[in-house]
Each structure stands twice: as structure tokens, then as C-alpha cells.
Amino acid sequence: MSYSYSIPFSGTHGSIVIGKKGRCIKNLKDEFGVEIRSMVPLQCNSLPYFLVEGEERQVHLAALKVFSLLSQSQARAEKHLRDDNAEMVTMIHDLNQENDELKTENIIDKPDELCGIGCSKCYACISGGTSPCQTLA
């Protein structure tokens, strides 16, 4: 008796199940004695999926392994996103610090020049400098 089970996946996560030159999917087929195929969805808003067919117990065991591999791929992708996010936060923090230092230098070194950001931030408007505010002109 043949049994089938569908396992949807998104993005490139399915490549971990297929493996280089199809080795992983071939090993899964051999290990569990099942047929595993990567399927294209019939509907445009559906996800691609793996179709596992064979004896029910073996299909479930193979499906668990496939889910495990997909989870590993998703965990790696999430870690990369977290690392990239942390790097961007550090870059933004550094840029903000540099910007604050430049503003401070401009106010100290050139007290009568406008900062160029606007009347609520320029030195002339904040401290009553001798230069008139150019943003309202």
C-alpha cells in the first residue's frame, strides 16, 4: 500500500534536502526506501513542496528527516539575518555618533553658521546667533 505526504518549503531552503548534485535526496530515498520528489505548486500563490511516497511508516520517518533539514536551513538563515542586523545597528550607531561629533564641531568652530538642517536645529535659531535663519527666508 502506497502512502504520500507533502512537505512545503519556502525560498531556497529546499536545496538542503536536495543537496549537491542530488546526493542528499538520493541518500534519503535509499535510507528510508521511499520516493521523494520536489514539486512545483499548481496554484500561483502556493509554496513548492516535497512529495514523499512509500510505506506509511517509512514516509513519516523520511518526512521527519526532511523537516529537520528544512529547520536547519531556516535556523542558519535566521542567524545570518540576526548577524546582519547587529552589524547594521552598529553602523547606524557609529554614524549617529560621527554626526553628533560633527554638529558639535560646527557649533563650536563656526558659531554663526547655520547647520543646514533647519530652523529648529541651526545655531542661529537655537542660540540667537548673529546670522539670520535661512530656512524661513
Summarize this, please?
The chain is α+β, with helices and mostly antiparallel strands and 137 residues long.
Strand-helix topology:
Elements: E1 3-8, H1 15-18, H2 23-32, E2 35-39, E3 49-54, H3 56-109, H4 123-127
Antiparallel strand pairs: 1-3, 2-3
Helix pairs in contact: 2-3
What does this structure look like?
- This protein is 53% helix and 12% strand.
- With 137 residues, it is α+β, with helices and mostly antiparallel strands.
- It is elongated.
- The chain has a domain of 84 residues: Ribosomal Protein S8, Chain: A, domain 1 (2-Layer Sandwich), CATH 3.30.1370.10.
Helical content class:
40-55%
**What would CATH call the architecture of the domain at 3-86?**
2-Layer Sandwich
Our measurement of the CA-to-CA distance between the termini, rounded to an integer number of angstroms, reads: 84 Å
Structural class: alpha+beta
CATH class descriptor name of the domain at 3-86: Alpha Beta
CATH level-4 homologous superfamily of the domain at 3-86: K Homology domain, type 1
Task: Record keyword descriptors for this entry.
Ribosomal Protein S8, Chain: A, domain 1, alpha+beta, single chain, three-stranded antiparallel beta sheet, 137 residues, 4 helices
